[in-house]
Amino acid sequence: MRENNTSIKGDQRAQSALTEGVRWASDLTRARQAGPSLSHKDWSQAGFSTAAVHAGTMDDEATGAVGTPIYQTSTFLLGDEQYRSVEEGYARDRFIYTRYGNPNQWALQTKLAALEGAESALVFSSGMAAITATVMALLDKGAHIVASNELYGGTYNLFNQEMPTMGISVSYVDPRDYEAIEAAIRPETQMMYFEALTNPLLKLVDVRRLADIAERKQVRLVIDGTFLPPVCCRMIEQGADIVIHSASKYLNGHSDLIAGAIMGSRKLVDMVWPRLLAFGGSLDPHACFMFERGLKTLAIRMAAHERSALSLASYLEKHPLVKRVYYPLLSTHPDHDLAQRVLRNGGGMIAFEISGGDTAALELLKHLKIPKQATSLGGVESLVSLPYNTSHAGYTSKQRLDMGINPGCVRLSVGIEDPEDLIADFDQALKAL
Amino acid sequence: MRNGISVTGLSEFVDEIKQNAEEGIAAYGVELNWQSGTRSKVKTLPMTIGTHRISRDFSWEIDEPRQLLGCNHAPNPQEYLLSGVGACIMVGFAVGASVMEIQLETLKVTVQGELNLAGFLNITPDVPVSFTELKYCIEVAGNGTPEQFEQLRQTALKQSPNAMTIMNQVSVVGDLIIK
Ligand SMILES: Cc1ncc(COP(=O)(O)O)c(C=O)c1O
């Protein structure tokens, strides 16, 4: 360390690898550490709500203002230390330019890493920016991906339309068929890519089992955890190498911004960071501030989502016009045993099938007064949509049937409204059919 | 980054291997398919570093000059061998310069060798088949002192897996599969 800490604008603990007399690689002294972060208090033993409120959040030193100030700047004053960090390759630990890093991004990243129990995190301007940067960071020319055959449409488009242009191929397999997943792995496979809970039928994947395959086959496991934020299940603990989120959903939780995030080891997140810089999907400081505020209530929001979703799912299951309900915490859910083992919270996503097919489903939507007809999920307000004319409109009805999406399938993101009100609303809407 | 090398990343990798020796194990392979005459096509096989596989989607051709009964369509095996040694020394030099905080301006490595084809052709049994000497020359410009560059030269050679494979000899084991 050649300068005193006050000159360091960034992570004080992160230092140059070079000291006097270094002759060869083995003399270098820097080891990887968690972060980067401005606050190094360890919240890993704290509960989710405590970590959500406190981890990463910094009070303003100059004024004593409580909460992370908004650093609405594109750039930072440069000094010797910053120049040095660029020259030696530790620029991620310093403030240089907001696309590279900004205190609001760091505050958020520290909070996300604490919630996931991960060493490092990055935030992005969308979930898709997070996915693109991650996938491109972990793959090489000629690589192959083994992915779920029930991916979010945007991810499927990236894999199906963009990856082949870059010489990367993808095989799609049933996320519950672990033998088929293993059989799909080839010598050039570098990544397994799955969603923790699928859309719309909420198949729960066994991340531990996938991680076991990944380890034996020497490939990376990437999990899109959007439907199951860390309060429900920590994917890194289960063995994922990187967990990706569309933070536009539960993590921010208020349907008022678009953002993405990844969490994982410092080693892998450091590999993604240069792609964030190159592809440019950085999150604006003001959006970070909103996201940080939203994230503070993640645990209590998830408790409310689960409470309302479980009540509503149980009610729907008994309704004569409802043929089938999918919710991981219902004993009738095909993955219920797994859910009991791995989920601390069942989340707020429900799918159900009503009698009368898509016409009846459309009619139901018209009569609902609380859930809004909109795509997206994970916000405080309930949102409802039909896969046949939204997320899965690109498929033929036969293809949808093959996937198990039957006519009359409704996807519901249960908000935090009182369960009695939601049940009463569904009761009147179903009566009107 | 100085010389385009992240000494931070290098340091962290070094530490990772110190913590877990398995992370330092690199396994490589190439596959050659005979095309015709003296010409072959090479492709890289997936590589592993530590516990992870890396796709290596590269291929190139190898041939001999007409004088050696080829078509002179590509470099020959000896040139690949020499370039493998030269590139390896060059990487070591650039890495060493970076950790010694030397900014390189230019760096050129030449590797030359001579062999007697009478050995390969077994015309004269006491003539060695192999190269009997390889000569390298490093031409460098940068802000290091002559002592530093000399130190770098020695380290680059001593730490070069390819140069050391040749200098220390390596056992070559093989199989034959008849289809
Ligand atoms: C599972 C899943 N992954 C990724 C995304 C993409 O996220 P974003 O819309 O924030 O780019 C979505 C968004 O709809 C999603 O549902």
TrEMBL record, chain B:
<dbReference type="InterPro" id="IPR015946">
    <property type="entry name" value="KH_dom-like_a/b"/>
</dbReference>
<dbReference type="InterPro" id="IPR052924">
    <property type="entry name" value="OsmC/Ohr_hydroprdx_reductase"/>
</dbReference>
<dbReference type="InterPro" id="IPR003718">
    <property type="entry name" value="OsmC/Ohr_fam"/>
</dbReference>
<dbReference type="InterPro" id="IPR036102">
    <property type="entry name" value="OsmC/Ohrsf"/>
</dbReference>
<dbReference type="Pfam" id="PF02566">
    <property type="entry name" value="OsmC"/>
</dbReference>
<protein>
    <recommendedName>
        <fullName>Osmotically inducible protein OsmC</fullName>
    </recommendedName>
</protein>
